[in-house]
Design a protein that fits this description.
With 336 residues, this protein is α/β, with parallel strands linked by helices. It has 3 domains: 122 residues, no CATH class; 84 residues, no CATH class; 77 residues, Winged helix-like DNA-binding domain superfamily/Winged helix DNA-binding domain (Arc Repressor Mutant, subunit A, Orthogonal Bundle), CATH 1.10.10.10. It is 49% helix and 15% strand. It is built from 14 helices and 12 strands. A 5-stranded mixed sheet has the order 1-8-9-7-3. A 4-stranded mixed sheet has the order 4-5-2-6, with no helix packed on it. The radius of gyration is 21 Å and the shape is globular. The N and C termini lie far apart (46 Å). GO terms for molecular function: DNA binding; DNA-binding transcription factor activity.
């Protein structure tokens, strides 16, 4: 998944990448950040997926019907998405990284909207092969941008402030790890297949694909709420690693069962309900708005009661519901 700029030679068309070859200058300039377009693409991929992770399912259930209705009125857009998402490759025009972190979606979509139909069709053929007659239509870049804008406006925008707090909490945490332990610590557990190797090598895929030399280029690490990550590039200057931050899309705080609140107290009940996927205290603080010290104290009580499990990931500790915690929550929900 990578993208060239108009008029730029596209090398190694469709090649997968296993490692980035970097140097001290690349890593000194490398930045963590967020991307509204990346977040929107992750949402679009989940809305099309038949296998949505449990912590994303409530969000997907809310928006799936409207998404199907949107596609029903857009046969060209439907054909474009069917061709864009291959089994091992996503069309480059959808995955182009931002020129800098934390831009607006309109700023990011300007590049996509500049592409001509030939460039879009070429990317689609790399992703899935020969194209259907529907994709002989003109204005394919505008069709793709319209689908992304719809997905942003109807499924992401209203909860973007909450998502952004959680994504930024992860960015702050990884930046702190970088300061204290270098890139090996900052990238620990970031995404399956991504890890810092020795001698200026950054593994970006567990599969044995060829390396790519990105010395002299810019490198971004983009936090997103999708169930997986990917690598993309905007030739010749910008490369990006998108990595997943789990447990963010559970929606706003659901009503808590009265029995659970009486047993644990409202704050501990809220934290137990939030821990459907492993999360750090930093992420929970951003998600709930509670003070960091308060979150840590309540987590210790829940852990001592056997309702949580934990493990260390780099410099952070991740918490999630134990079997006893899941059983307690399920029983409280049944009696609610």
């Amino acid at each position: 998944m990578r993208q060239g700029t108009p008029g730029t030679h596209r090398f190694a068309y469709g090649r997968k990448v296993g490692e980035f070859i970097v140097d001290a200058d690349v890593m000194a300039r490398a930045r963590f950040g967020t991307s509204q377009l990346t977040e929107t693409l992750a949402a679009l991929k989940m809305l099309r997926s038949a296998a949505v992770p449990p912590w994303h399912r409530p969000w997907a259930d809310v928006h799936a019907a409207a998404f199907r209705e949107r596609l029903a009125g857009d046969p060209v857009g439907t054909a474009l998405l069917d061709a864009a998402f291959g089994p091992t490759w996503t069309a480059d025009f959808l995955t182009v990284p931002p020129s800098a972190p934390d831009l607006t979606i309109d700023e990011e979509l300007g590049f996509l909207e500049s592409l001509d139909d030939g460039a879009v069709r070429a990317d689609l053929e790399v992703a899935t092969g020969p194209l259907t007659p529907a994709l002989t239509a003109t204005g394919l870049a505008a069709t793709a941008a319209a689908l992304l804008r719809w997905t942003w406006a109807h499924t992401v925008r209203d909860e973007w402030p909450r998502r952004l707090r959680v994504l930024r909490a992860d960015v702050v945490s990884r930046t702190a790890r970088l300061s204290g332990g270098g890139w090996s610590a900052a990238l620990d557990g970031i995404s399956p297949g991504v890890r810092w190797l020795a001698n200026g090598r950054l593994q970006v895929n567990a599969a044995p694909y060829p390396p790519r030399d990105v010395r002299g280029r810019d490198l971004l690490f983009i936090a997103a709420t999708g169930p997986g990550g990917w690598v993309s590039w905007r030739l010749p200057d910008t490369y990006a690693v998108v990595y997943p931050v789990t447990g963010v899309l559970a929606g706003g705080p659901a009503p808590l069962p009265d029995a659970l609140v009486r047993l644990l107290g409202r704050t501990r009940a809220r934290l137990l309900a939030a821990l459907d996927a492993p999360q750090s205290t930093t992420a929970l603080t951003a998600r709930t708005g509670l003070p960091l010290g308060s979150v840590g104290g309540h987590l210790r009580v829940l852990l001592d009661a056997g309702l949580l499990e934990r493990r260390r990931s780099g410099r952070e500790v991740l918490y999630w519901r134990s079997d006893a915690g899941r059983t307690l929550l399920a029983a409280a929900d049944e009696g609610h």
